[in-house]
Amino acid sequence: MYSKIRIGLLCTLYQQTFCWSRNESTVGKTMKRHRANMEASLLSSPTRSLSFIVTAAGLGYFILYASAQIVADWISGSVPFYDYIHIPFIILFGLSIVATWARPRVGYIMGLISGVAGIAVLSPFTLVKGVSSPADFGLFFYVITIFPMMLAASVYSLLAYLDLRNPSRPISSNRLYLRWIVIIMILGFMIGGVTVGSLAAGTENQLLSSANSNADITILRGAAVQGSPAYNPGNFTVKAGNTVTWVNKDTTVHTVTSSTSGSFDSGSLNPGQTWSHAFPQIGVFKYYCTLHVWMKGNVTVTA
What we know:
By secondary structure, the chain is of the alpha/beta class. It has two domains: 38-208, no CATH class; 217-302, Cupredoxins -  blue copper proteins (Immunoglobulin-like, Sandwich), CATH 2.60.40. 63% of the residues lie in helices and 12% in strands. The chain has helices spanning 2-43, 46-76, 81-102, 104-132, 137-165, 173-209; strands spanning 217-219, 231-232, 235-239, 243-248, 257-258, 274-278, 283-288, 296-302. The longest helix is centred in the N-terminal third of the chain and has 42 residues, at 2-43. The chain starts with a helix and ends with a strand. The relative contact order is 0.09.
């Protein structure tokens, strides 16, 4: 009798436990399904389209620009070290775009991290130099467009990821306005920067063309490109005791440094700047640019 009662109680308890477990599983599946539906709704919304377009455009612009630069340098026969720094970011940005479309959560995290990393790694090489020398318009255009586009991709990746973390939260009008404000500000900065840079480039080019035309040796425009003429004349002859003057008419910094250590060194010559050195002894004095080692010249001193 008692054994039957115990068996009955155990069966009842098992049934209740099973039903509770099944109900909990059903509720859990329903919540997961609801969350998935919310994410799918968010991902198919205009906001998602805007986030993906801006992220893909920001990262994709770098991929196209950097790839074209590498190909152009390769065709010219001179691939500077800076081009090799671009390669891992080209790969990383490409993977981020694919992941953003296929696995948005992972993709937007990758977009945020890669965008910030690109700005942090590449800006020390070009940002100050590009902004300060609009006459080198290729570099100036790179700086004034690449970094804002990467910044836009990073900001939109962050906003999209925050939306996906809480898909049930409605997107407020303020957050939508923020997205459009970011786009307008970045586009305004790029358009204004290119316009002002174009005007400044014309002025700087005029100043460089008229800079110290009495110099003996000119550092030519484009001298930083390997294979291009550097110092003009490449071999300058002077009498012993006279002074030789160099002028930098390129749009980037150069040096006039003796190939014999400690003989003479101009230090950094900014665009338009001159430097002079006296040669009291006869001989052939070779020199080069420490920043662009393929730039070489000679000063021949005679009696």
